[in-house]
Design a protein that fits this description.
Layout (H helix, E strand, L loop, with lengths): L3 E12 L2 E13 L4 E5 L6 H8 L7 E6 L2 E2 L5 H11 E4 L11 H11 L5 H14 L15 H13 L5 E5 L7 H18 L2 E6 L10 E6 L2 E4 L1 H4 L4
Parallel strand pairs: 3-8, 3-9, 6-7, 7-8
Antiparallel strand pairs: 1-2, 1-4, 4-5, 9-10
Helix pairs in contact: 3-4, 3-5, 5-6
The structure holds adenosine-5'-triphosphate and magnesium ion.
The site of adenosine-5'-triphosphate has 13 residues, from strand 1, strand 2 and helix 1.
């Protein structure tokens, strides 16, 4: 069973008098532990697809099943709970809480879920940060971290609840090439060691080297490049 199964998804934004078809007949399956790069030009529908896959937006038409949950049928409350428990998000602009240090930024996830974790949650946050090479930075506020370090905290936060699926929206576009490559390497290592699937949106074709498969999107329509689909890592 796929961890993400989107079928015939269509998303129409109503903007004044005009309808914008941001996604059209988008069908995408992602297996457990698979890393898919989603590549396409600006305005092609990448963020829209990611938002629908993670239950931040609902599709106009089509079905979205994530780890067995048919979220296309969920209401807003169900979606909030679903997101908290089942998916991790990492965005281009990192969105860390500015007045909380690195460790506390991870613990926010636990608090949103009712703070059940207690001491275990602290231990998990520390272990994750160590793993991400931030062992000596746990007490730093976001402003006291480099761009790459902030992005690593965001990755830790996305992994905190052990989701089966993590969605990345241009995770390296604010970083220089070298740090961007390091972050992609880290993403790949972390996903593979946990058997966590990822969809990574990018418009940088070099980033596709870190994926198992690349899916292209143009004008809201997906196309798969079969040569890349068979490439192995
Ligand atoms: N809330 C909205 N209301 C109306 N139109 C929208 C909305 N969000 C996105 N769009 C439009 O839908 C299309 C797809 O947008 P989307 O943000 O998914 O593109 P993208 O591929 O992520 O682009 P970028 O690479 O610039 O981030 C664009 O034409 C955009 O203008
Ligand atoms: Mg976008």
């Amino acid at each position: 069973m796929s961890v993400l199964d989107m079928r015939d998804v269509r998303k129409v934004y109503r903007s004044g008098d005009a309808d914008i078809i941001a996604l059209d007949h988008a069908t995408l399956q992602v297996d457990h532990g698979e890393i898919v790069a989603l590549l396409g030009p600006s305005g092609s529908g990448k963020t829209t697809l990611l938002s629908i896959a993670g239950g931040l937006l609902t599709p106009t038409e089509g079905t979205v099943v994530v780890d067995g949950h048919d979220i296309s049928a969920y209401n807003a409350k169900q979606l909030t709970e679903f997101r908290r428990e089942n998916v991790g998000f990492v965005f281009q602009s990192v969105n860390l809480v500015p007045f909380l240090n690195a460790e506390e930024n991870l613990l926010v996830v636990d608090e949103l879920g009712g703070g059940k974790g207690g001491k275990t949650a602290k231990g998990r946050a520390r272990q994750l940060l160590e793993e991400l090479g931030l062992g000596s930075r746990m007490r730093n506020l976001p402003a006291q971290l480099s761009g790459g370090e902030r992005q690593r905290v965001a990755i830790g936060r996305a992994l905190f609840n052990n989701p089966k699926l993590v969605l990345f929206d241009e995770p390296t576009s604010a970083l220089d090439t070298k740090i961007g490559a390091q972050v992609m390497e880290l993403i790949r290592t972390e996903m593979k060691s946990r058997d966590t699937a990822a969809v990574i949106v990018t418009h940088d074709s070099r980033m596709t080297d870190y994926a198992d498969r690349t899916v292209r999107i143009v004008d809201g329509r997906l196309t798969t490049n079969s040569a890349e689909a068979t490439a192995t890592h």
